[in-house]
Amino acid sequence: MMTTDSDTIRVASVDDNEILRGGIRFLMLAFDDLDWVGEAPGGEDAIRLCQEVNPDVLLVDMKMPGLDGIETTAAIKRACPEVNVLILTSFHDPDLVRRAMRAGAIGYVLKDASKEELAAAIRSACAGQTTICEEAANDLLVDPVDLAVELTDREREVLALLVKGMSNKAIAKQLHRSPFTVRHHVSQLINKLDAANRAEVAAIAVARGLVR
C-alpha cells in the first residue's frame, strides 16, 4: 500500500480512456495537497484498487464498458464505504445525475471543469461535502410546484449542516439535540425532497438553493 503525508488527499480515478487517466494524473501534480495513488481502466479493477490503496476520493467516469459509473459507484460504496466517490464525466442527463447520487456518489463534475474547479470538488468530497456542477444542478431542478417544498426551521438547520458533510452525531452535538431527533429530521428531509439518501438530499438542496 502506498503511504503519503497525512495532510494530503489521496486521489485515484477510474476511466476506460487511458489518455484521460494520464491527463488527470498529470493535473494532480499542480496541487501540493492532492496525492495521486492509482488508476483503473474499469469498474472491477477500481474495486480492487480501492481495497489496495484506500483513496480518500475516487474519480469515476460515467460511461465505461463492463460496470458503468453508477454500478461502479454502488460497488465501491459496498466494498469500501469510506471512499468518497466523485463522478467525473461528460454527461449530465437528469436521470444519470439522480442515479449517481442514489448509488452513493458525493459529487458530480463535468470533464470540462477547470483544474481549480476539479481540485475544489475533490477537497469538498474528501470533507464529506457535496459538490454539483452547475449543469448537473440544473438537471436536478424540477417544476416550480415541486420547488415549493415546505421545511421547518429545524429541518433547514439540519439540512445546512448535512450539506457540510456532518454526521447525524455531529449535527446533534451542534444543535444540542439527540441523535434520534436528528435522524427523524433527516428522514423527513429525504421524504420531502423525494430523495433516496443523504447524498441526494444534499445534492437537491444545493441545486435548489435551499441552503446558503
Automatic annotation (TrEMBL):
Residues 10-126 form the Response regulatory domain. Residues 144-209 form the HTH luxR-type domain. Transmembrane segments: none annotated. The modification 4-aspartylphosphate is found at D61. GO terms for molecular function: DNA binding. Keywords: DNA-binding, Phosphoprotein. PROSITE patterns: HTH_LUXR_2 (PS50043), RESPONSE_REGULATORY (PS50110). GO terms for biological process: phosphorelay signal transduction system; regulation of DNA-templated transcription. This is Response regulator protein VraR. It comes from Novipirellula artificiosorum. The lineage of its organism: Bacteria, Pseudomonadati, Planctomycetota, Planctomycetia, Pirellulales.
